[in-house]
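Predict fold of ACT domain-containing protein ACR; 385 aa.
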Amino acid sequence: MLFYHAFHETFIFIVFHVTDHQGNKITDSKTIDYIEKALGPKGQITEGSVKTWPGKRVGVHSIGDHTAIELIGRDRPGLLSEVSAVLANLHFNVTAAEVWTHNRRIACVLYVNDDTTSRAVDDPNRLSVMEEQLKNILRGCEDDEKAGYTSFSMGFTHIDRRLHQMLFADRDYEGGGLTNEIEYPPSFKPKITVERCEEKGYSAISVRCKDRAKLMFDIVCTLTDMQYVVFHAAISSDGPYASQEYYIRHMDGCTLDTEGEKERVIKCLEAAIRRRVSEGLRLELCAKDRVGLLSEVTRILRENGLAVSRAGVSTIGEQAINVFFVRDSSGNTVDAKTIEALRKEIGHTMMINVKKIPTTAKEPEASGWAKTNFFFGNLLEKFLA
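Predicted 3D structure, encoded as C-alpha cells:
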C-alpha cells in the first residue's frame, strides 16, 4: 500500500507499506540498509546530458568497464540470436543484457566488454564496424515508415527506465491489432479510466489489473515520459489484483480535457503494463561464464523453433545467469518434446530450470533444480559498485 501527497507543489510526503517479492515482511538488515541509502539524501542519481538522434536504431556509450549497446526495431524469431552472434564474432563478451518485446517491437540494452581485456571498448573503428553490422540486422526486418519513429537518448539511467523510454519513443502503444500477444483472461486485463477532478483541477487516472512487481514503477515512468506530474496517489492490492489512482496534471498545468488525450494516456499505460508481462515458458539457465555463451544459447533456442519474448542476462562472479521467456515461432505454447530436446542438448553443460508461467494467480510449476528467482533491471549496480 502507498499514500503519496504533494504539499504546495514543493514538498512531497510518501508512505510505503512493502514486502519482499513473496509477500513476506522485510527483516534483513542489509536490505533495509540498502533501501535507506538508496532513498536517502545521497541516494539520488544524477543523469548526464542527454542527446537524441531521431531514427537511430543502434546506440553505444561506455559505463565503467562496460560498453552499453541499445537496439530497437521490429521483432522476429531468431533476431536475438543474430545480434549475439555478431557480437561474439567481433570479440565482444556480453556480461549483462535485458530484452523486452511488445507489439512486434523489440528493445534491448546489452553491456559488453572486450573478450580479451575485459575492459570497455573505446576503439571508434571497432565500434563503427559493430554498429554497422547490427544496423544491417535490424534493417533487414524494418520497413521505412516505422523506421522514422525510432529515437535514442544517450544518457545514464536505470535500465528498465531506459527500455520504457525506448519503446515509448518507438510508439509501440500504437501497434494494436498487429501483435501475436497472449490473450489475457478478462479478469486480468488492465482496466484504466481517466476522469476530471473538478474540485482540485486534476485528472484522476484509475488503474486496476493483475498485481505484480514493479507495476507502480512502470506506470509512473510512462506518466513522466508523457510529461505528466503526479500530485497525489493511492496504491492498494486485494489478492491478485492491484488498484492504483493517480491525480495528475501536465507539466504546463493543464489537465486531460480532450477524448484524444485520454485515449492516448490509456493506450500508453496499457502498453507500459504489458511490456513486462511474459507468459509461456520461462527458461532459467546457469553456467560458468565464457565468451560466446549467449550466442550459443540463443542459437540453440532458434534451432529448436523458439522465439524469445523477454530475456535477462547477468554475470555474478564466474557464473552466467540467463532467463528467457519463450514461445514457439507461431506464438503458441512450447510442447513437451521441444523442452526435452533442449534438456538433452544443453543440460550437460549448464543447469536448466523450466517454469510454465500461468495466466491465473496460481504458483508456477517448476522442474529442474531448486526454485530460484532472478530479477531484471538492477544490472548497473554491479558495474558501478
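The longest strand covers residues 92-102.
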